Automatic annotation (TrEMBL):
Cellular component terms (Gene Ontology): cytoplasm
Entry-linked Gene3D superfamilies: NAD(P)-binding Rossmann-like Domain
Pfam families xrefs: ThiF (PF00899)
Highest taxon listed in the record's lineage: Bacteria
Entry protein name: THIF-type NAD/FAD binding fold domain-containing protein
One Gene Ontology term of the molecular function aspect: ubiquitin-like modifier activating enzyme activity
Domain THIF-type NAD/FAD binding fold: residue ranges: 116-353
Organism from which the protein derives: Metabacillus indicus
InterPro entries: ThiF/MoeB/HesA, ThiF_NAD_FAD-bd, Ubiquitin-activating_enz
Amino acid sequence: MNPVLKTIYTPIIVFDGKVQIGKEDGNLELEDLDGSVRDLLNLMDGTRNTVELANEMNIDHADLLEILNDLDEYGLVEDASAVKYTSLNENERERYRSNLNYFSNFSTLKKSRFTYQETFKHTTVALLGLGGFSLTAAALAGMGTGRIIGLDYDSVELSNLNRQFLYCEDDIGKLKTEASSDRLKKINSEIDIEVHNVKIEDAKSLLPVIRESDIVINGIDQPSILSTRWVNFACVKLGKPYILGGIGHTSIILQKYVPGEENGCFDCYLLNSLREAPEFIHQLKAVYGASFQKRNTAFAPNIAMITGLVTNELAKQIAGYDRADNQSSSLEISSLSFERLSETQWKKASGCPTCNGDMNSDEPADLNMILELSKESRV
């Protein structure tokens, strides 16, 4: 092991017998009256192993390991020798250099930043919808996601070009599956791109598309609510986590399903919402199964925000570097003030026909069953 102070925390600041290391959650100040802390940090340039460091600092090896353990707990150090053991080649390490620098935020002496990129390299993401979420497709390609499975049935239209920046004017009239595949291969020729030109009209047709994926992004927004229930059912059936996003008039919405004993699914969310606010039934009935082609408020900055949030959440789920809030949930944020408007955890709902029901079925229960079940007491 060759300990090194993480590059993202350099330079260190030395003043008044102290060493200060800048972190976003607050500067760390270490007392250093004799300059030994400064000397150790300067020697930790990644070229020396722990025995060599202890000898140069003239301290016991056990004492050095204790110091390193403390620095590791603060998240300040990593193992420079980890580069010898990564499966990433030199070209990949250069290509994803900024990714690797970002992953240094989460690396330790035992888990290197390279492992996070390696995880991306061996991950398959199913992206359902290549319209607004084509930005996410571009991000996934740039991040080095090993395999992207894209699905859409639409063609590129002039009105798409205000926010679907994977496409250009020359793509108008082309199938989005074809145009996106061509563009993504130009962004990153080292990953696998698979596309399906299919219009989804039930849950069953999703199963072969998402079966080999590790995680699903849902960009299918019509028919309203029903399409989300199709994706939810298919993902619960196959045990796949999924993330979806949407925009309101001046808000953005992020939702996620994470398989787990305590986590609910989208049908649980509907059931609990109806039980807590019975009047929600009127809104649900009004929009259920509807299409809103002419009232799309997809404004480029808002699309960029929601696709960024979705991709960031996906990265956390894939790499596992932030599992503090690994629960199924909905989050709504104002696109004007960025304040949180609402946040709801998807608790398991008693009687949910999807995650507590018979998964031998090919399709989710119909809306009338959801409405009837919502009248039962919530557990």
